[in-house]
Amino acid sequence: MTHYCAAGNQPRLKLDRASSTSTRFIFFDGGTNLDPAKDMHIHAMTMTFGKDGAVDCAWEGYVTGKKAGTTHFQLSRSKP
């Protein structure tokens, strides 16, 4: 998938099969319009599936080649 960032770059996210498990998917592959050593960008995303059906998406942001922080999005199903 491609993350079309408000920063104007497009990190590509590809499943890292060697590092992923059946309940934890890890993504990153590179990008366009960015230099990972210099530019602020989303560097990776980890999607973790909980037993209760919840999903945690952790987006890792990098600045000047170093991890600057992680933003989590908690997804859950609503009850009918």
Task: Give an overview of the whole structure.
The chain has strands spanning about 10, 25, 30, 40-50, 55-65, 65-75. Helix content is about 0%, strand content about 50%. It has no helices and 6 strands. The strands form 2 sheets. The chain has a 4-stranded antiparallel β-sheet with strand order 2-4-5-6, with no helix packed on it. Strands 1-3 form a two-stranded antiparallel ribbon. It has a domain at about 1-40. The N and C termini lie far apart (about 30 Å). The chain is elongated, with a radius of gyration of 14 Å. By secondary structure, the chain is an all-beta fold.
Quick take:
By secondary structure, this protein is an all-beta fold. The protein has strands at residues 10-12, 24-27, 30-32, 41-49, 55-63, 66-75.
Secondary-structure-based class equals mainly beta
Which bin fits the share of residues in helices? under 10%
Q: Describe the main β-sheet briefly.
A: 4 strands, antiparallel
- Count of extended strands: 6
The tally of helices reads 0
The whole-angstrom Rg is 14 Å
Shape verdict: elongated
Low-confidence runs: none
Distance between the termini: 30 Å
* Integer average pLDDT: 89
Run of helices and strands:
EEEEEE
How would you write the strand order of the largest sheet?
2-4-5-6
**Beta content:** over 45%
